[in-house]
Amino acid sequence: MPGPIQSIQRAAEVLKLLAHGGAHQLSVGEIARALDLAKPTVHGILRTLQEVGFVEQEVEGGKYRLGAALFQIGTSYLDGNELRAKALNWSDTLAMRAREAVRIGVMHGKHVLVVHHVFRPDNSRQTLDTGALLPWHATALGKALVAFGEWPDGELQAFTRHTLNPDQLYVAMNEVRDRDWAYDLHELVEGEASVAAPIRDRRGVAVGAIGISGPVERLCDSPDQPPRLELVSYVREAARSVSRELGGLSW
Amino acid sequence: MAYIAAIDQGTTSSRCIVFDQSGGIVSVAQREHRQIFPKPGWVEHDATEIWTNVQAVVRDALGHASLSFSDIAAFGITNQRETTVVWDRQTGEPVHNAIVWQDTRTDALIKRLGDQDRFRERSGLPLATYFSGPKLRWLLDNVEGLRARAEAGEVLFGTMDTWLIWNLTGRHVTDVTNASRTMLMNLETLDWDQELVEAMDVPRQMLPEIRSSSEVYGTYEGVPVASALGDQQAALFGQTCFEPGEGKCTYGTGAFLLINTGSKPVRSQNGLLTTVGYQIGAEPAAYALEGAVAVTGALVQWFRDKVGLISSAAEIETLARTVDDNGGAYFVPAFSGLFAPHWRSDARGVIAGLTGYISRGHLARAVLEASAWQTREVVDAMNADSGVDLTTLRVDGGMTANNLLMQFLSDVLDVPVVRPIVAETTCLGAAYAAGLAVGYWSSTDELKANWHKAAEWEPSMEPAARDKGYRKWKKAVERTVGWMDEDDD
Fold this sequence. Notes:
The structure holds 2 protein chains of 2 kinds. By secondary structure, chain A is an alpha+beta fold. Chain A folds into 2 domains: 6-75, Arc Repressor Mutant, subunit A (Orthogonal Bundle), CATH 1.10.10; 78-246, Beta-Lactamase (2-Layer Sandwich). Chain A is built from 9 helices and 8 strands. Chain A has helices at 6-21, 28-35, 39-51, 68-73, 80-98, 140-147, 166-179, 216-219, 229-245, and strands at residues 55-57, 64-66, 101-108, 111-118, 133-135, 182-185, 192-200, 206-215. In chain A, a hairpin with a 5-residue loop joins strand 7 and strand 8. In chain A, helix 1 crosses helix 3 (39-51) and helix 6 (140-147) crosses helix 7 (166-179). Chain A starts with 5 loop residues before the first helix and ends in a 6-residue tail after the last helix. Chain B has a domain at 3-232: Nucleotidyltransferase, domain 5 (2-Layer Sandwich). Helix content of chain B is 34%, strand content 23%. A 7-stranded mixed β-sheet of chain B has the order 15-16-14-13-19-20-21. The N and C termini of chain B lie far apart (57 Å). Chain A binds chain B through residues 23, 58, 65, 68, 71-72, 79-82, 84-86, 88-90, 92-93, 95-97, 117-119, 121-123, 126, 128, 130-131, and chain B through 22-25, 28, 309, 311-318, 321-323, 359, 398, 400-403, 421-424, 452-457. Chain B: This is Glycerol kinase.
């Protein structure tokens, strides 16, 4: 078997870098510096990627961004806005049953990006946090996503004394895979808990996660117990309904 | 535990949604029906196909949740408004395809009937092609022998609510909200108006009995059929806008802003329609002012299907977010003229402010912003007619999933925009009205307690930017009018 092809590896690095930038566009110089490559090398890669439509420039000689062709061929790519549109009914129903705030997250680099947020149904003052980034290792959403995806590299910050260390996380992730749902207990904020389950597309890939979060008193029977099974079943049911909407389940 | 099933007979599909007591969705089923286009401007539906689909979605919705008819406390009905069907009383066979609300075949008839405001005082409506009365008249004039059969009492007229209730229960009735869209009902008496019926020249005996929106009309498979509301009125009900001054805007293909005006009809001086909001049993009817925008979601669909820069409607937000503003471009989607508050049938669409700088991201922004600016125009008209300024806009419909649009809407209206926790307010309204009729819910207060905020967007635009944007929008609108000439089809 031949070894990896360097130019493809580098092209992939360029695409990843542009993807992490989101709407922020990058110049040849910025990409070269970030990847520690020579400018002519980066320029050559970009020109090739531009020819196949994977990157594009607003103006000739300007900055680069991801191209439309990439979005069209990326079958595992699910637009967060699309996910929100498909999940609207089921996230509402989950919020009403659980009487808690609902969030839907997708992996975005090393973080969980909140693509949808439904307020806790008590008409109290709440602020929409769609677009916010959450640490994956201290949230149920993140654990549900990473358990069925890739383990992102990088330091795992301890937010409370309950935040899991990598060894504990490793064990926890096996449990998540067995049970098909995840929780966090005081791990991001002392006194708060969350429950989440993966949303799967038609190929069975976990493309997002849906979950609830709130104070431990409401979610758990006691402060050191996992969230109540009734709430877990609501979350799992919502995840199944959204998966069905995406064609991920036939029943 | 019992549930309420709402049947939503819409323009492109029929759906059945089963709700629980908290208003949560238990199951959903949907079937699309054919859009029949015999000629440019003509749109028809096969009413028999629709009835078959309605039976199927009811079966499917129950099946998905493993429910039987005995688990259902009542059926509620909401429907595409104004679509007109006539059928044989004996066989149940439609005499012609249903003529859909969008259909413009009655254009010439409308012109012959005279001044736009001729029937406004009695019916609350301007003379226009949508309303059912002129469509019924067209059928009587164009289906051979129909007038004689109608006079002999052999055929029946109905909007889609009437067609479904007749098939479900055997009774020939309609509700006040659907009747208020025929242009044949008197807004004060809530009964067929002799002068309107005579002016439209339709036989009175083919018209259904007008009932309230929330009462038991009959039973289907042993289950009471207990509500009927036109789709926009159902959304008003589902948003629990039971007090005068409360209103909502539903974003679908078009957008419809309805404000409850209480027990008296308010005549608009600013291009809005006066309509019935709902009537619960023997209680007095609640009236509403309605502002209709023809093209909102339809513009996103056009951008997807005809321009092809996006592959799904939701992707427009992704594309729009690649830029920070509209770059100076404004898109006025007057595809079939301008509706409220302008009512200009000679207008056609315009993209104004184009420069070499404009990219597809800017166009995507302009497409979304068009929905917000059109809402602003209708809200301004509503404020002028009611004399009270809107303080919050309650929204629903599929486009409320678009965060960028909702934020921009709040920015240009300069009021908070609030989405309730069940975005399916049309079905929810039909379910609520049916549930009230059979005692599943005790009162409108109980329904109000079910209403919860799911999301709220606060205005954050600088007043100067808002004023400039609105000024540019109005200039773009000016550029759409008078496009059509005498020799245009």
